[in-house]
Design goal:
With about 240 residues, the protein is mainly α. The protein is built from 11 helices and 2 strands; from the N terminus they run αααββαααααααα.
């Protein structure tokens, strides 16, 4: 096997490895041969192979996972690892847009699957929300109520998506904004809306449960927008 470390060998290795990136030449996992196997296959040094792989990785044509190997294509986006960054950059409008798309669906699905024990659990959570002494406790029970609806929906992917969005909701700035948008009147309104959601779920009425959840979330969104517009006017 050739072990010459000249630039010509690095260029040769780069061209040959490029040709190996053809999906037809790789398995379903798109995994490349090991560095040692590439050295033997191309009859070049390991340094030449590593230089070629570094170029291909910089170009986004391959990605590497420690202990697993080298794969063709761009690296998968680390969604969960970047969640904190997403949370810090997301606005209340973005959060509410996602909630309005997801949670009515959760409520409708829950109406088709809820047991009497599930209904009792939801009513207990509403009681905890109403009895909360401060913002921190109220947000804790409110989040538990909405998560329980998603849990009753019986779809693990739904629940995982809810948890993802809920982590964004727990950002300090978001919690502060929600609390400032609350008042005695809005708390009374939200209480009746929570009860309407549970009543529809208890009746097994998917359409009404979804509609009730949408009404609740739209009311919250309206109050948040009103507060944000008011504060913007005060600043200007």
């Amino acid at each position: 096997m050739a072990i010459d470390d000249s630039n010509d060998n690095s260029n040769y290795a780069l061209k040959r490895i490029r040709s190996l990136l053809d999906p037809a030449l790789l398995g379903p996992d798109r995994k490349l041969p090991t560095e040692r196997a590439l050295c033997e296959m191309l009859e070049v040094s390991r340094r030449s192979v590593r230089r070629a792989l570094a170029v291909l990785e910089a170009e986004g044509h391959i990605w590497r996972r420690q202990g697993s190997g080298t794969f063709a294509g761009p690296a998968p986006v680390p969604i969960l690892l970047s969640l904190e960054a997403v949370a810090s950059q997301s606005s209340y409008l973005e959060v509410m847009e996602i909630r309005l798309r997801l949670e009515p669906e959760f409520a409708g699905q829950a109406a088709t699957r809820a047991t009497p024990a599930d209904i009792e659990r939801l009513r207990t959570l509403i009681g905890h929300i109403n009895a909360s002494a401060d913002a921190d406790e109220r947000e804790l029970w409110d989040s538990s109520f909405h998560r329980t609806v998603a849990e009753i929906a019986g779809n693990r992917l739904y629940l995982a998506i809810f948890d993802l969005v809920d982590r964004v909701r727990q950002e300090a700035a978001w919690l502060e904004l929600r609390e400032r948008a609350r008042s005695a009147n809005t708390n009374k309104l939200y209480r009746s809306q929570h009860e309407a959601v549970v009543d529809a779920i208890a009746d097994g009425d998917a359409a009404s449960a979804a509609a009730a959840m949408r009404v609740h979330l739209l009311a919250l969104q309206k109050n948040l927008r009103r507060l944000a517009t008011q504060e913007s006017a005060d600043v200007s």
